[in-house]
Amino acid sequence: MLITLLTSLASPILIKQIPDNTQHTLDIVLSLDTSGSMSLNGFNELDYNQSRWSVVQEVASDFIKERSKDRIAMVVFGDTSAIASPLSYDNASPLSTLQNIRIGLVGRSTALIDSLATATSLLEHSISSSRLIILLSDGDDTASKIPLEIVLKLLQKFHIKVYTIAIGESNNNLLQLISTQTNAKSFTANNKKDLKEVYKEISSIEASTHKLSTIRVIEYLYFYPLGLSLFFALLLAYKSRNSETI
C-alpha cells in the first residue's frame, strides 16, 4: 500500500504522440467570360486558329487539376451571369462542365460585375479561411445591372480576394480597381503562354498546404496507484475490524 501511495504522489505520466494532419484549403470560384469576343482567334501563337475560349478551357482545366485539395466552382457570364458548377472537392465536375461550355451560353455581352455578385453568393457562407475569385475577361463591362460599389462592399464584407486576368484589349483599369480593392492582384495575358504563367503565379500566391505533424498529449496516471492504495486501505480496515470481532 505504501508503495502504491508513493507512486501516486510521484504523479506518473504517459506521453502519447498523436498524428495531426493540418490542411489549409481554399474555396475558389473561376469567373469566366463567355461573351462573343471570346470566339476570336490568334491568342495562341502556335495555333492561330485556336479561339480565345478554347485556350481558356485548356489552361483553366490544367489549373483545376492542380487544385485537387481545394473546392472549385465556376461562374460564366455574357448578357447575364450564371453558376456553371457549384463548389466541390470533386474536380471532375467543373472539368467536365468547362469542356461543355460554349460561347454565348448566357449571351454575347459582358456582365462582368454581375458575375462577381454571383460568385460571391457561392462564397459568402464558406467556412474556408481563404476565399477567392479568379475573374477572366477580354472586354469592358457592357451588361451588368448591379453597381460596382455594391459588389465591392460585398467582396470586402466576406473577405473575398479577386484576382483579375485581362486578355486581349479588355478594360484593365476596371480589373485593376477590383483586384486592388480586394487585396489581390491584376494580370494581363497577351497569349496562351502568358495565361499559363498567370494561373501558375496565382497558384503560387494562393497555395493550399497539407502539414503532417504530431500533437504531444500527456496523460496523468496517478489515479491508478491512488485507487490501489485506497483499495488496500479499505481491505486492511476490513481485516482489522474482523480481527477485533473475533
Automatic annotation (TrEMBL):
Transmembrane annotation, as ranges: 220-238
Keyword Repeat: no
Keyword check for Disulfide bond: no
InterPro entries associated with the record: CLCR, VWF_A, vWFA_dom_sf
PROSITE patterns, per the entry: VWFA (PS50234)
Domain VWFA: 27-202
Keywords: Membrane, Transmembrane, Transmembrane helix
Name by which UniProt lists this protein: BatA (Bacteroides aerotolerance operon)
